[in-house]
Amino acid sequence: MVINHEDADDVTQNTLIKAWKGLPKFKEEAQLYTWMYRIATNEAVTFLNKKKKMFFVAMNDVEHELSQSLESDEQYSGDEIQLTLQKAILTLPEKQRIVFNMRYYDEMKYDEISEILQTSVGALKASYHHAVKKIEKYITTD
Amino acid sequence: MENKKNIRKELENEAPFLSKIKKENQFTTPNYYFEELPEVMSSKILINKYLYRVFDKLSYSTLIPITTAIVLFFMVFNFNTNNISPGLTTHQLSELIIEDDYLNIEAYLVYEAYADLLAKEENENPINEDETINYLLENNIDINSIIEEL
């Protein structure tokens, strides 16, 4: 979500600290994996929003910045088609990007995604469908 | 219930080109990142705990009164400093008038400066009786008429 390794490292550490602090309150109503995934997702979104506010940039400028950062990141090892795919994903709105990543890369079920994002299965299906269409169009046009 | 086969089939139906792209994680981590992560996290958690304890000691019952006292002190200090306004000398007054800044001058400062000027002039030029008499005689001013007026 945050693309850059340094930022991902910060988000990871924040996630682990939050999970550590929240562990006594964890009631086992959900799976530990789902609970931690939710914390990680929220931390990533919070991080991106902070970045946007800190530099007074619009969201589409943040995406452009992430896209630039992707090309120069040492920890990125994808080929050209993978790079194009990542840039296509970056054009999606934040929440749609999260849904796409969870379904496409992690191959999560809609029920699991619904539990993590607290969104209905119907909304998730619609979101994923739109995301896939947009990406397909971006890749085939490019 | 969904399974991964169904998820891939769904993608093939919706985006055939996308489904052909090799699905792999292109984001790598530096060497020994995960090996070092537990140690990094332990030290961060310790620092967090320490900071939390320090802040807890300086709790609301101490911090708020101290902060309020400091704010009040600065307010009083600032008020007192602003109330002391220096007087103007005649020279400063003339400079201000020349620069058209006289509108910004407090009225009482102008009066004080003028009073000083008059007092200075009086001191510099004390009334000389002989000179007064000479003046009266040269200008044919009748001393008796002056006495009558007085």
Would you give an account of this structure?
The complex is a heterodimer of chains A (142) and B (150). Helices cover 75% and strands 0% of the residues of chain A. Chain A is mainly alpha-helical and 142 residues long. Chain A has one domain (5-141): Arc Repressor Mutant, subunit A (Orthogonal Bundle). The termini of chain B are far apart. The mean pLDDT of chain B is 71. Classes of the chains: A mainly alpha (142), B mainly alpha (150).
Domain module tally of chain A: 1
Question: From the helix content, strand content and strand pairing of chain B, which structural class follows?
Answer: mainly alpha
CATH topology of chain A: Arc Repressor Mutant, subunit A
The arrangement of helices and strands of chain A along the chain is HHHHHHH
Put simply, the count of helices of chain B is 8
Radius of gyration of chain B: 45 Å
Q: What is the N-to-C order of secondary-structure elements of chain B (H for helix, E for strand)?
A: HHHHHHHH
Q: Largest sheet of chain A, if any?
A: none
Structure characteristics:
heterodimer; A: 142 residues; mainly alpha; Arc Repressor Mutant, subunit A; 7 helices; B: 150 residues; 2 domains; 8 helices
Give a summary of the structure in a few sentences.
The complex is a heterodimer of chains A (142) and B (150). Chain A has 142 residues and is mostly helical. Chain A is built from 7 helices and no strands.
Write the layout of secondary structure elements.
The complex is a heterodimer of chains A (142) and B (150).
Chain A lengths: L4 H18 L9 H23 L4 H14 L7 H11 L3 H11 L5 H8 L3 H21 L1
Helix pairs in contact in A: 1-2, 2-6, 3-4, 4-7, 5-7
Chain B lengths: L3 H11 L1 H5 L12 H25 L2 H24 L6 H9 L8 H18 L4 H10 L4 H7 L1
